[in-house]
User: Which sequence fits this backbone?
């Protein structure tokens, strides 16, 4: 029963949402701009507190950011004064992990995100896709059970975006993460999502698999939304 209001209660961004995410699932939140996707993700991350209602992970109420959840933002969040490897080590350093362990883990993460040749490069000398891979490596190195991603590839051009999506599927499967992804792209939602949650004006309109949304739309809105996104879905069918 999560409610999130802004402007002293004058605006309701999340309007009484109740849902359960299962461990190991990839859940994709989708919907028009302003429907509340980012707000939902920020509530799960603990960066925002609900006006009313409860969120919990593994039976513990979410009261703020926690080590069980790792966030990957759209804007590359790497430190320009640190090399790719040092960026990946940074979170582990904060966590108090020993230098040797940090270094080994960072090397493993660099391989995982296909950046092993760029360990000593600085972010400003890396492409947008590579910078985002550094940020992904850094988040994964802290070993969160749940990965939270807000339009993670939205700033990348189509080809790089596709490569990143392919890489990310590999990463999620190898690392066995539970994933909550926010996207406005149905193609991306269908590519990743075991479950797709379609939102409208702070509510869930339909929650199900891609084929359920296509073949059994809950209402006209779902049908129109899917139709408008046909080009994105076409890519998936190929
Ligand atoms: P989405 O990510 O689906 O595009 P958001 O979750 O960012 O949507 O925003 C949902 C609604 O809440 C929007 O109308 C947005 O303007 C509003 N909103 C988000 N954050 C704030 C805030 N801090 N103050 C006031 N309104 C906000
Ligand atoms: Mg958003």
Assistant:
């Amino acid at each position: 029963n999560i409610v999130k209001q802004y402007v002293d209660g004058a605006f309701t961004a999340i309007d009484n949402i109740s849902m359960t995410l299962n461990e190991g699932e990839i859940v994709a939140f989708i919907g028009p701009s302003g429907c509340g996707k980012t707000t939902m993700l920020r509530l799960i991350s603990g960066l925002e507190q609900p006006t009313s209602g409860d969120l919990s992970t593994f039976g513990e109420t979410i009261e703020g950011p926690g080590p069980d959840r790792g966030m990957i933002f759209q804007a590359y969040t790497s430190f320009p004064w640190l090399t790719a490897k040092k960026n990946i080590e940074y979170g582990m350093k904060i966590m108090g992990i020993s230098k040797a362990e940090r270094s080994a883990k960072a090397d493993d993460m660099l391989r995982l995100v296909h950046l092993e040749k760029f360990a000593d490069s600085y972010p400003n000398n890396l492409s947008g896709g590579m910078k985002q891979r550094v940020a992904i490596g850094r988040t994964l190195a802290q070993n969160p059970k749940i990965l939270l991603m807000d339009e993670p590839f939205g700033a990348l051009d189509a080809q790089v975006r596709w490569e990143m999506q392919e890489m990310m599927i590999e990463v999620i499967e190898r690392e066995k993460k539970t994933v909550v992804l926010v996207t406005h792209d149905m193609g991306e939602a269908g590519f990743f999502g075991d479950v797709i949650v379609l939102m409208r004006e702070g509510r869930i309109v339909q929650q199900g698999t891609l084929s359920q949304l296509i073949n059994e739309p809950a209402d006209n809105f779902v049908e129109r939304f899917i139709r408008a996104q046909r080009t994105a879905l076409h890519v998936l069918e190929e």
Observations:
- Strands lie at 2-6, 11-17, 26-30, 56-57, 60-61, 69-72, 146-150, 178-182, 195-200, 203-208.
- The first strand starts at residue 2 and ends at 6.
